[in-house]
Amino acid sequence: MSFTKLGLSAPILTAVSEQGYDTPTPIQEKAIPAIIEGRDIMAAAQTGTGKTAGFTLPLLERLSKGQKAGPNQARALILAPTRELAAQVAESVELYSKNLPLTSTVVFGGVKINPQMMRLRKGVDVLVATPGRLIDLMGQGAVKFKNLEVLVLDEADRMLDMGFIHDIKRILKTLPAKRQNLMFSATFSDDIRQLAKGLIHNPVEVSVESNKAAKTIEHWIHPVDKTKKPALLTHLIEKNNWRQVLVFTRTKHGANRLVKQLDKSKIEAAAIHGNKSQSARTKALAGFKSGEIRILVATDIVARGLDIDQLPQVVNYDLPNVSEDYVHRIGRTGRAGASGEAISLVTAEDIKELSDIERLTQKLLRREIVEGFEPINKVPETTLNMKPIKAKKPKKPNRSGNNQGEQKAKRSHGDKAPQGTKKRSSGHKAQSKKNTDNKSGSQDVWKNSTKKHK
Ligand code: AMP
Fold it and tell me: So what's the pLDDT on residue 111?
């Protein structure tokens, strides 16, 4: 299958080939023709599958045919859970639309609101937003959706995990009833299905295998005692001369502590999590991408969706509480066919998490004890003789009838919504003021500007 068979026009195909893509990924193959046709989509897919191009390319194809946006109007709205993901999606939109006379912009919290309001004045074809800042902007009359044609919910499960459901409902109320809806989620919980029920009509369902690690990723564990973990990580970085490693911790506090420990060993490291200011997050990510920072220590919520080219190494300093996050984490490496390595430091206390991961991936992880770090508390042996954990498959909305009261316990990630994109509350105005006052200089890194009409 080639991109030319999917119904995309020449300006988009040129932009795609300039990216060096010759074959559409499975999600692109299924989603692109259906979206061009105007169908609603419900897709089980996560970062690394090519989903961003999967919805952006046909979206641009559709928008290239219609009327331009009026002042303060947006024709397509893409909602994303984190600022990093919103910025990345906006970059893709800009890239793929470079040969089209379409405009796009991104808005998120933690940076000044005024420049965002200015950019929205003339109207935009594609608006990428995090929910909290979008509500601020809507409250100030900076953006209206009378002419909205397409709504995209990207990483819908993560948006619900982060407590954005009320914001999403508020936004949905302001959208015209006649529109196309595209929903992307790594998992389909009852909450997600409930949300989809009132939103998506007769969707094309797309599911991309998500509970298996890519074949190009080699992953194994180092059993170790808890107290030896910082020393083992330093040892591995130095012995293997790792230059760019994404390290996952379970908590924000744990991430900060680890950065301090690495600093003491003169290893350049920075933390990225929801308690960091936007400018600190932007600086850390930019430094990591450019190679100035060797080790980026992240928690799950912020790290999910980060697309770092050719990332060779991922370390699970702590195993995740939720086994599906293991697949997301190690999927940061070995992308688009490149090879990658992911190692996990595992202590005797982590036996349940380890066993859950092995049952989900249906693979017993290879154990490698590092000389000098032999654990006193041995990690018990595990087997696969238990029922495998299945990742949830998407189900048709409406089919499940009334599942109110079946609200599933929220997944615990040890990380809250990032500052400025939190669940709205009575302190909302104060938060907006704080964002307005934020003197962050992150715009240049995020290309936080509207793409000009050509
Ligand atoms: P995503 O799942 O949208 O985060 O995309 C993951 C990565 O795959 C990004 O770095 C994209 O640039 C890349 N990508 C997307 N589509 C293709 C394709 N058809 N061929 C090769 N790489 C792709």
Answer: 93
